[in-house]
Amino acid sequence: MSKLKVAVIGAGAWGTALADHLARHGHMVRLWAYEPEVAQAVQEEHVNPLFLPDFALHPGLEGVGDLAHALEGAELVVLVMPTHVFRDVLGQAAPHLPAGANIVACSKGIEGNTGFTMCQVAADVLAPLHLPRLAALSGPSFAKEVAAGAPTVVTVASRVPEVAEAVQAAFTGPRFRVYTSGDLIGVELGGAVKNPLAIAAGMVAGLELGHNTMSAMITRGLAEMTRLALSLGAEPATIAGLAGLGDLVLTCTGSLSRNRTVGTRLAKGESIDQITASMRQVAEGVKNTRTVLALARRTGVEMPIIEAVEGVIYQGMKPQDALHDLMTREPKPEVY
């Protein structure tokens, strides 16, 4: 494997874990951080005390606070910004993107105003010469477990097979296995829709409703994800795979899931303002509940679980009442 010059844009937990993984895999990696103190800590102390504490980072990983410097000479650009600032940061980075770099979006979400996935945002922002080099990486992958070296398996999708294969080669290692896909929209939608569904799962856990309820919630959540994804041209196998079912199960059941934690705290009686004010890192599902629901309504897709989560977060509905409404809906066939 040849060493690449890599720029990772975004030094939250996921961006830091990916940058550290790539550095340990032999690449020359620069990690851009919005927070100057994070860039300095990565560079001088080889830690990210704000977003990934208690993990020693590879000493060769360079922390930087200047986008132009981070992107200089990059052959692979990894985008890991929060979705609500993705467009703005990418717009600032665009003039500095090397023409031949592969660009892989690792942020999971839907843009609020447009209903765009992150690769669609990138296609809207970047010059045409960059568009064939776009890819998305997604799948069941908690940042802390990747940082700890737990075996992890994900999918990278691109419309250009050679781009997907190049990103696969760059990321693949003994503890990080990457599959390729040509279904870019399916991979991105799976990663976006699972976040508000994980908030629903957290409410199930917080209400202590048991395994029957949790299993039903995940299964019917997968049905909602599938309906939306297929309506937008995704392949069924993608939603049944790592970026769909795999990430959904992880985020709905894992104790490290920020979105699940939000749901659990909502079920215990906290308000969404109290919860978000206390969280340093973004729980993407809070904003994406409305963006996913808006996208579903524009495409005529029914997503009752997402509607229930929106009611609890934004309309003051009690989780118990949202559950009652779901359970007493008009009977339907399982597949429709």
Overall number of strands: 8
CATH-scheme architecture of the largest domain = 3-Layer(aba) Sandwich
- Mean pLDDT equals 97
Roughly what percent helix? 40-55%
CATH superfamily grouping of the largest domain: NAD(P)-binding Rossmann-like Domain
**Termini distance?**
47 Å
Q: What is the count of distinct domains?
A: 2
Q: What string gives the helices and strands in order?
A: EHEHEHEHEHEHEHEHHHHHHHHH
Instruction: Give the helix tally.
Output: 16
Oligomer: single chain
Beta strand %: 5-15%
Secondary-structure content class = alpha/beta
Task: Give a quick account of the main beta sheet: strands, pairing sense, barrel closure.
Answer: 8 strands, mixed
Question: For this structure, what is the CATH class of the largest domain?
Answer: Alpha Beta
Q: Tell me, what's the shape?
A: globular
Give the strand order of the largest sheet, numbering strands 1, 2, ... along the chain. Answer: 3-2-1-4-5-6-7-8
Query: How is the CATH topology of the largest domain named?
Result: Rossmann fold
Walkthrough of the structure:
By secondary structure, this protein is an alpha/beta fold. The protein has two domains: 5-182, NAD(P)-binding Rossmann-like Domain (Rossmann fold, 3-Layer(aba) Sandwich), CATH 3.40.50; 185-327, Orthogonal Bundle (N-(1-d-carboxylethyl)-l-norvaline Dehydrogenase, domain 2), CATH 1.10.1040.10. Helix content is 51%, strand content 11%. It is built from 16 helices and eight strands. The chain has helices at 13-24, 36-45, 67-71, 86-93, 118-125, 143-147, 161-171, 184-206, 211-231, 236-239, 242-253, 258-267, 272-277, 284-299, 304-315, 319-327; strands at residues 5-9, 28-32, 62-64, 76-79, 102-105, 134-138, 152-157, 176-181. It has an eight-stranded mixed β-sheet with strand order 3-2-1-4-5-6-7-8, with helices on both faces. Helix 8 (184-206) runs parallel beside helix 12. The longest helix is centred in the middle third of the chain and has 23 residues, at 184-206. The mean pLDDT is 97.
